[in-house]
Specification:
Number of helices: 15
Structural class: alpha/beta
Number of domains: 2
Distance between the termini: 13 Å
Largest sheet: 7 strands, mixed
Length: 393
């Protein structure tokens, strides 16, 4: 009997979900208990931790994610290093929950995205699409002695999808309601929206990236503080600035924002080169850096409002905010001002915003080992449902 076959008869599995996002601030680990799968999924979170990256690791990730850095040696070593750091995150969340590592049944690991090219480009004489997440699953499996599911996005891309967003499938399982339309806005490095129409099925769920979440804000803060700060805690810095309508209008003219779903984006579009250009244009018009930051914060909020206005076939009855950006009070105030629906944070409803994506990969791993399709073609644009994830035993 294989390790997977031994898991399936168990009523409840202890599953760790791991997430390292485009903000490159650390690895999130959520220890969960999952009963059932598919529409019968029931989940309880036992513990959550974030293992922050040392500054050297963070700089390395941001360098590799530009797409112009790193050779085979560097990528090989980074892959192994990310596996080791992922294992440490698993052990840390076990310690917090007072659960022995050998009691873990399964791990779902997203890995660290280094490059995401969901639309075809010319490469070596061919039209090629791809996405790359690193973090060696074998290191985690060796350390915990349980199966690990990893490398989720590539299967959706192979089926013609964007490989993103993936969280909406899990949001459908956990947040759908019969009597009202729910929208969920995750604000990580990139923002992404999920629309769950009232009493809708999975094929009616709409999800797509809305544009920058914290990514542009964080980079401006780093420039303003000479690298002493990596984010605007609570939005305190942006609150001291003034939103400039001219620069805001220029940013909102970004053609990507007008592209219809399915669509996804990342640091390739909104990384250092983009922020350099925004800072240059702002300074040319006499803006102080604090005003550029305030404008970028409003821009993220306007991206959310535009996404709802342009691409949601039904207006949400409620918008629920999650991710690290939900802690930015200035950004939340801007979103409440820009969006007509009532706006809540996950914490207002008793959930943990920080743990949401890590929990999602615990669920996606559970679906994978049950041979259950775990993508949403309505969100990713894939030709058909697929089972995402590679299993390391």
């Amino acid at each position: 009997m294989t390790r997977i076959e031994r898991l399936l008869p168990k009523k409840t599995l202890r599953v760790i979900g791991l997430m390292s996002g485009t903000s490159a601030d650390g690895i999130d680990a959520a220890l969960t208990e999952i009963t059932g799968y598919g529409l019968n999924t029931c989940l309880k979170m036992l513990a959550f931790v974030t293992l922050p990256y040392p500054e050297e690791i963070r700089r390395l990730i941001l360098s590799l994610a530009t797409g112009g850095e790193g050779g085979s040696r560097k990528l090989c070593l980074f892959n192994a290093l990310m596996g080791e750091l992922s294992l440490r995150a698993c052990l840390a969340v076990c310690e917090v929950a007072s659960v022995r590592p050998e009691e873990i049944d399964l791990v779902g690991s997203h890995g660290q995205t280094l490059y995401h090219q969901p639309t075809a480009v010319e490469f070596a004489g061919y039209q090629v699409r791809g996405t790359l997440q690193l973090g060696e699953a074998s290191v985690i499996a060796e350390g915990l002695g349980c199966p690990v599911v990893s490398d989720f996005r590539v299967r959706d891309v192979a089926a013609g999808g964007q490989g993103a967003p993936l969280v909406p499938y899990t949001e459908y399982l956990l947040y759908r309601q019969k009597d009202r339309t729910v929208a969920l806005q995750n604000i990580g490095g990139i923002g992404n929206l999920t629309l769950l129409p009232r009493n809708g099925g999975p094929d009616q769920t709409l999800a797509f990236d809305t544009g920058p979440g914290n990514m542009v804000i964080d980079q401006i803060v780093e420039r303003m503080t000479g690298g002493l700060r990596h984010y605007d805690e609570g939005g305190q810095m942006a609150a001291r600035g003034r939103v400039d309508q001219g620069l805001l209008g220029l940013m909102l003219g970004d053609p990507w924002l007008s592209l219809p779903p399915p669509k996804s984006t990342g640091r390739e579009a909104y990384g250092a080169a983009y922020v350099d250009e925004i800072m240059r244009k702002g300074r040319e018009t006499g803006l102080a850096d604090i005003d550029i930051l305030a404008t970028a914060t409003r821009f993220t909020a306007e991206c959310v409002a535009l996404a709802i206005e342009r691409f949601c076939p039904v207006r949400p009855d409620v918008l629920i905010l999650g991710g690290g950006g939900a802690r930015n009070r200035t950004l939340v105030c801007h979103i409440r001002d820009a969006v007509s629906a009532p706006v809540f944070r996950n914490e207002d409803l008793g959930y943990n915003s920080d743990a949401k994506e890590a929990i999602a990969f615990a669920i996606l791993a559970n679906e994978c080992v049950h041979d259950s399709c775990n993508n949403l073609p309505s969100a990713t644009g894939a030709r058909h449902p697929v089972v995402m994830g590679k299993i390391t035993l």
